[in-house]
Amino acid sequence: MNILIQLTYLASAILFIVGIKKLNRTQEARQGNTFSAVAMLLAVLATLVQVQLLTLPEILICVVLGGAIGIYWSRKVEMTQMPEMVAIFNGFGGAASLFVALSDYWTRAVEQPEQTTEIVTIVSILLSVLIGGVTFTGSLTAYGKLSGKVSGQAIVFKGQHLFNLILLLAIIACGAVVVLETGSVTAMLVLAAIALVLGILVVIPIGGADMPVVISLLNSYSGMAACTTGFVLNNSVLIVTGALVGASGIILTQIMCKAMNRSLVSVLLGGFGATSGGGPAGPAGSEMVIKEVGVEEAAMIFDSASSVIVVPGYGMAVAQAQHVVREMMDILEKKGVNVRFAIHPVAGRMPGHMNVLLAESNVPYDKLIEMELINDDFANTDVVLVVGANDVVNPAARTNPASPIYGMPILNADKARTVIVSKRSMAAGYAGIENELFGYENCLMLFGDAKSTLTKMVSELKEM
Amino acid sequence: MTIENFIFLLYILVLASYVGFELISKVPPTLHTPLMSASNAISGITIVGAILCVREGEASKYLGMIALVLATINVVGGYAVTDRMLQMFKKKKA
Questions:
Q1: CA dihedral sign of residues A22, A24, A29, A33
Q2: Where is the major localization of this protein (chain B) (predicted)?
Q3: Are B9 and A90 within 8 A, CB to CB?
Q4: Shortest CA distance to A343 belongs to which of A323, A317, A324?
């Protein structure tokens, strides 16, 4: 029996790996997800046969309850809310690791103190509690920021880093007490409480547009938490899968940091956008002269173009403009215009955010081009439409060494013959930096809510 | 857990991390959100630990039950929402 259980765990681990491998190809990704769900089911079944019959009803109740909540949320969530959804699920994963570790600890410390517990197990429990706790409240804070329930701005206070450091030292002290004396429940609970507070404190100083980095990192943490839980329970399937998730989160974190030309440390220390204020504006400064364009005129420009590149940003998600953007694409394509989308790696609030939104509105994914592959094409493009993006098309990143975003890889939208920017107002991007692009010769501003202006544009285009 | 056992698990951790890095660095940016949501669901593997924790006991059992509910939400919700996303990714309009 035991051999069978172990072999099932092995099969599950293999299926997880194959499932993730299939996520490499868009055509096979959905199948890959199914593989990985089957792997999870196998692991759960192999575990269920190990439990006492007495507790089976309770287990089933918990599973049905959790499953129902999970299904309900996953059905009702809007695609624009995906970042929040991932954040909150991630938080639950972290919390689960926290509670598993606490439960195991409770058995060892309170209910069966006569059992001897090795030091590696205790340390694993401590790490599970710490990482699980930080993941839990950190993810909830990220959820709050993404859903607008907490200010998306970076929240900083004096002595923040020092305070975090003190908390970390307190955690180490509590950990040491627990290691020396396994039965020390108070120290463990204090440690858990501090971990929860720390989770909030490490995420609040991070501004809205740095969220892709934070979500990726928290994702990685939840994997690590599962890993340490594996060490607590001496279970290799937890370690394998936890490691896969941990690695995935770290890779995404690296990609996001690179795309913003920032180090992970500088993102984590936070405060970007809150402290830099306006920053030294480019040579154009506040005297920047901008040119406005009306819907009709803009429609005419699109009508006479032969190639168009759309640059979507978080603003498109906020305005829910992805469907009307697709309508516009359809009309332009019927007129023989070549329409493509240029996706900056950090556009939106999580990695790949724009791709999901546009896929939802039925834009074929081969129309969505990565930054490196499309950047050289801007120069041969008639019109670029910027919808709700700002910093990712700011030429200051290339030209102005004084700019806070200098060095960040950007989309070369400014190289196109005409750039039309759909924007609500002249407000600066999240980085609080003026966008030099708006003052360029070839740039026209199309003010107003992206959804309503583009809807008008679509009806204009239909009549042409 | 003996020290040999611990070293063995450490081997698993290192090798699995390596496999993870190799596999995931090839995922195209288009699929980054589904990847994240899928790996998020996978991290719900703690569900296995949670099930093992719901056994005879007092506080430990209730802690295990809380963990189980949370982990199940993570797993089921994560996979369902990933599937919903992935079915939208189409190549060309029919």
A1: positive
A2: membrane
A3: no
A4: A317
Question: What is the pLDDT of chain A when averaged over all its residues?
Answer: 88
Pick from B5, B51, B82: which is nearest to A234 by CB? B5
Report the relative pairing of strands A383-387 and A418-423 from DSSP bridges. parallel
Give me chain B's average pLDDT, please.
90
Tokens representing A89? 């699920």
Contact assignment for B83 to A77 by CB distance below 8 Å: no
Query: With bands split at pLDDT 50, 70 and 90, how would you rate the model's confidence at A284?
Result: very low
| Contact criterion met (CB below 8 Å) for A230 and B9 | yes
The residue of chain B with its CA nearest to that of A51 is B52
Which residue of B1, B33, B42 is in closest CB contact with A245?
Answer: B42
Percent of chain B with pLDDT over 70: 97
Q: Reply yes or no on whether A391 is catalytic.
A: yes
Give the integer Cα–Cα distance in Å for A237 and A14.
10
pLDDT at position A36: 96
Report CA A32 to chain centroid distance, whole Å: 21
Interface touch A222/B17, C-beta < 8 Å: no
Among residues A382, A391, A414, A449, which one is catalytic? A391
Give dist(CA B31, CA B49) in Å, integer: 29
Place of tokens 């994240």: B36
Strand order of the β-sheet with A443-447 is: A368-370, A338-343, A307-312, A383-387, A418-423, A443-447
User: From the CA of A164, how many Å to the nearest CA of chain B?
Assistant: 27
Q: Residue A272 — φ and ψ, nearest 5°? A: -60, 135
- For A169-197, how does the pLDDT look when each residue is reduced to its tens digit (9 = 90+)? 999 999 999 888 877 889 999 999 999 99
DSSP assignment, residue A425? S
Task: State how far the Cα of A430 lies from the Cα of A315, in Å rounded to an integer.
Answer: 11
- How far is Cα A254 from Cα A248, in angstroms, rounded to an integer? 10
User: Is the pTM value of this prediction over 0.80?
Assistant: yes
Q: Which of A33, A120, A323 to mutate to test the interface with B (most CBs of B within 10 A)?
A: A33
Judging by DSSP bridges, how do beta strands A443-447 and A418-423 pair with one another?
Answer: parallel
Q: Please indicate whether, in this complex, the C-beta atoms of A362 and B90 are within 8 angstroms of each other.
A: yes
Residue in A26, A231, A353 nearest the CB of B89: A26
pLDDT tens-digit map of A332-361: 999 999 999 999 988 888 888 899 999 989
Least Cα separation, residue B51 to chain A (angstroms): 7
This complex has an ipTM of: 0.94
Contact call for B80 and A75, based on CB within 8 A: yes
Residue (of A199, A202, A455) closest to A324 by Cα position: A455
Phi then psi dihedrals of residue A152, to 5 deg: -75, -15
CA angle A261, A265, A267 (to 5 degrees): 60
Q: Which helix (H) or strand (E) is A40 found in, with range?
A: helix A29-48
